[in-house]
Write a structure and sequence with these properties.
The complex is a heterodimer of chains A (385) and B (330). With 385 residues, chain A is an alpha+beta fold. Chain A has helices at residues 20-29, 32-42, 44-61, 63-66, 153-156, 169-205, 207-221, 225-234, 242-273, 276-283, 288-324, 336-340, 346-351, 359-379; strands at 87-90, 93-105, 112-135, 139-148. The longest helix of chain A is centred in the middle third of the chain and has 37 residues, at 169-205. Classes of the chains: A alpha+beta (385), B mainly alpha (330).
């Protein structure tokens, strides 16, 4: 950022009901980013949403730590186990524990029925050793936030129940969150590169290039995307590895979001081109690159950040939809869409409604990103009203 | 006006061309070609195809030609109404798709109509009674519509339909009408099944439109002409409906252009969840089976349908908004 060091930085303290002149002075000397922060801070819902988004990304970073069971450990003996009740107190003392379960197959319905055994108390412990993983893909570790005493969590702890293959839903949800949110972020970055590049060219040079890019955007926006992406995703070779599919899907998804970002960038370039300070820079003999990067970009960076935030939910929904259809990420990859795929039909929902639980974080994060983006958009132009 | 019309028409044609190229890419993308799949199909059913036969077939279908010639050949076929064979079904693509494309259209249009019918009164109400309970309720529903992807909404509603009413809320027809020929009774049956998919598909768009309508109307309500009209003693209802609403209405028509592709996209995946007999489930099946002529044709038809719908909305916009109609006449 181009924050002139010479400018006096006002003391950032809570607004007391001091004389209005002092407040006004503080505002008049504040930098653009300070003004934005002050305005953003006033938007309570956006602030709360930002905290929610940060919490979700903490889950992304520490998914391995938060999961307590190996997300791929399947076991037919505990398939479709409903979410377990946690008992917080044991004889008046705080001692969270769960009951041991015994499963038998109902001879009439062929469904597995699980009965908790109140005599078999399994205490829940914090920060215990569990399955092995690599933190950030590097550091080998086996520490987990939750675990149980006396047995393995794979056999006894099922906070959100299990799926058909007996895999623990809570642990899978942690990994699904990681995958889906990273795809959202990487997808939006790729979209941003495309959008800034094409939108920038469009707004900066105008003329024929602008017309072509604008028509291209209009055409892309008037085509129903899902069938098209389905076609592209289905064409990915079957023998690709999980990682290859992961990247291909991210690229396909990023092709959705760039048009809106390009529109915002172009609009900003067009309106700023007319500004006096750009003219002044031109007259003082600044090169074009210098004008773009030291004068133009800083003044619309905030708008780009807002538009980017608002574009992320669409990315997440696209990934979830594609994987839900079985055309996006494929098992053994775990994402929200892959998890929801198991809740696809009414039979599954009727027998095991808890498989629908992964839709809750999807809804929460989409709302949070939308509110956060709204707040950022309002704050992006601190000089307006 | 004419210039506007011509510009829109040219854009529509360009878009259709882009859609056709993209559909062709979808057809071409998977490894192998039509004949490879055909051979696989034949050998799985016992009768083999020799190499010479395969080559002859390739020549006959022009598959040995470069891509752009193949594209032109395919376009020629399509323009003559011949979409090729659906391998999996062993029948012409047009026959396999049949009614489904019309039903997709019906569901999408129903969703748009729902969007309008819901967003118009709610938007007006939210603006006129700003910060009332109803306004907050509308905002809340708006956020739900915004945040819940349509397929998830379908799943959740289906779950509640099952647990609370013990009813399967999917489908577009009752069992007795599913295979029946078209009669008035079947049409009525369809009408009875339409509201739910329309609601599910339309909710997100409704949420958007309510917000736009509310914001636009709030802008208009503060303007001097409204005050003047009120001072002149016009009744409040007449005053609002006759002037500011008409001005605020403009985005309604112009958003169809964006709404329609969105709704058509959504209908594909919602149809799967609710098992609606639209092209959605067929598209997924054909993609999984790599039945590319069928898949490509569906993508093409959906695209063309959307472009035509958007063009109609442009005409509508021209009819509503005199500023476009008289553009260039001043």
């Amino acid at each position: 950022m181009t924050e002139p060091a010479a400018r006096p930085v006002p003391p950032v303290e809570e607004e007391t009901a001091a004389a209005s002149t002092a407040a006004e002075e503080r505002i008049s000397v504040a930098t653009q980013w300070q003004l934005m922060w002050w305005r953003f801070r006033k938007h309570r819902v956006a602030m709360v949403s930002t905290v929610v988004v940060l919490l979700f990304y903490l889950v992304v970073i520490f998914a391995d730590l938060l999961a307590y069971a190996d997300p791929l450990a399947s076991e037919a003996q505990r398939s479709l186990l409903p979410p377990q009740r946690i008992h917080w107190y044991d004889r008046g003392r705080f001692a969270p524990h769960v009951y041991g379960l015994t499963g038998v197959r109902d001879p009439m319905t062929f469904k597995r029925v699980y009965t908790p055994d109140p005599n078999k108390k399994i205490p829940i412990r914090f920060l215990v050793r569990g399955f092995e993983y690599r933190l950030f893909g590097l550091i080998p570790m086996s520490l987990h936030l939750l675990g149980v005493e006396g047995t393995t969590p794979e056999e006894s702890l099922f906070l959100l129940g299990t799926d058909e293959q007996g895999r623990d839903l809570w642990s899978r949800l942690m990994y699904g969150t990681q995958t889906s949110l990273i795809i959202g972020l990487v997808g939006v970055s790729l979209s941003l590169i495309l959008g800034v590049f094409l939108g920038g060219i469009s707004g900066l040079y105008g003329g024929v290039l602008d017309t072509i890019i604008q028509r291209l955007i209009e055409i892309l926006r008037s085509i129903p995307t899902i069938p098209l992406w389905m076609g592209l995703a289905a064409a990915l070779p079957n023998d690709w590895t999980v990682i290859q599919v992961y990247f291909a899907i991210t690229i396909i998804i990023s092709l959705i979001g760039w048009t809106e970002l390009a529109r915002v960038v172009r609009g900003r370039f067009l309106s700023l081109r007319q500004e006096d300070f750009v003219m002044a820079a031109e007259l003082s003999g600044c090169g074009q690159m210098r004008i773009i990067f030291t004068h133009l970009v800083p003044s619309f960076l905030s708008h780009i950040i807002a538009a980017t935030t608002l574009a992320i939910p669409a990315m997440i929904i696209s990934e979830t939809s594609l994987s839900f259809l079985g055309l996006g990420l494929r098992p053994p990859a775990i994402s929200w869409g892959v998890l929801l795929q198991q809740a696809q039909n009414i039979q599954a929902l009727a027998i095991s409604p808890w498989l629908l639980i992964p839709s809750i974080p999807v809804i929460i994060i989409i709302l949070a990103f939308n509110f956060m983006g709204d707040g950022l958009r309002d704050a992006a132009d601190p000089y307006g009203h | 006006m004419l210039a506007y019309l011509v510009r829109r028409l040219i854009l529509a044609i360009l878009t259709m061309w882009a859609v056709s190229v993209l559909s062709f890419i979808v057809i071409q993308l998977p490894p192998g070609d039509y004949i490879t799949s055909y051979i696989a199909q034949m050998s799985s059913s016992g009768s083999g195809v020799s190499a010479e036969e395969a080559n002859a077939l390739r020549q006959q279908y022009g598959l040995d030609q470069p891509q752009y010639i193949q594209y032109i050949r395919w376009m020629k076929m399509v323009l003559q109404g011949n979409f090729g064979m659906a391998l999996e079904y062993g029948r012409p693509v047009a026959e396999v798709i049949g009614d489904r494309i019309y039903l997709t259209m019906v569901v999408s249009v129903a969703a748009i109509i729902f969007t309008w019918c819901a967003a118009l009164p709610i938007g007006i109400y939210s603006a006129v009674r700003q910060y009332s309970m109803g306004d907050y309720l509308a905002t809340f529903i708006g956020f739900i519509g915004l945040a819940v992807p349509s397929f998830m909404l379908a799943l959740i509603l289906m779950y509640f339909g099952f647990t609370l009413f013990n009813a399967n809320i999917g489908g577009l027809f009752s069992d007795e009408f599913a295979e029946a020929p078209w009669t008035l009774a079947k049409l009525w049956d369809l009408t009875k099944h339409l509201p739910l998919p329309a609601l599910i598909l339309g909710l997100a768009g409704t949420a958007q439109l309510i917000r736009i309508m509310r914001a636009n109307l709030l802008d208009e309500l503060g303007k001097p002409y409204v005050v003047t009209a009120r001072a002149r003693g016009l009744s409040e209802a007449r005053l609002i409906i006759k002037y500011p609403v008409r001005v605020a209405l403009n985005p309604f028509a112009s958003t169809i252009g964006y709404l329609l592709p969105y709704v058509v996209s959504g209908s594909i995946i919602v149809s799967l969840v609710l098992s609606l007999p639209t092209v959605g489930p067929l598209l997924l099946k054909s993609l999984v089976a790599q039945d590319m002529f069928l898949a490509g044709t569906i993508v093409l038809l959906l695209g063309v349908m959307t472009v035509i719908g958007t063009f109609i909305s442009d005409l509508l916009l021209m009819w509503i908004d005199p500023r476009i109609r008289f553009e260039g006449k001043q």
